[in-house]
Amino acid sequence: MGKQRKDKQSRFFEVRKELCTGCGLCVNNCPKDAISFLWGKAEIDQRKCVRCGLCVKACPRGAIVEKVVILPKALEKEVQSLQMQVEAILGRLDKLTGVK
Q: How far apart are CA 25 and CA 91, in angstroms?
């Protein structure tokens, strides 16, 4: 599923309850017993989950999805970087078109 950068983002897996049929394939494939059933739907214990993604691959309905949360500091730096890139591109366009 890819490596996690702790300084920039946080990943976790979530069950989309409306798609879960309770087939149990995710439970059978979880190496850390992090998945159980609650009211016939899969439930992931985030404390036990090692984010290997085997449950995602096992689910035939696509009911388990990876969520990525970008931490605010990393997002702020990314926005600043993009702003500088946009300014550089606009400066080059100004030179090409003769607009000041």
A: 55
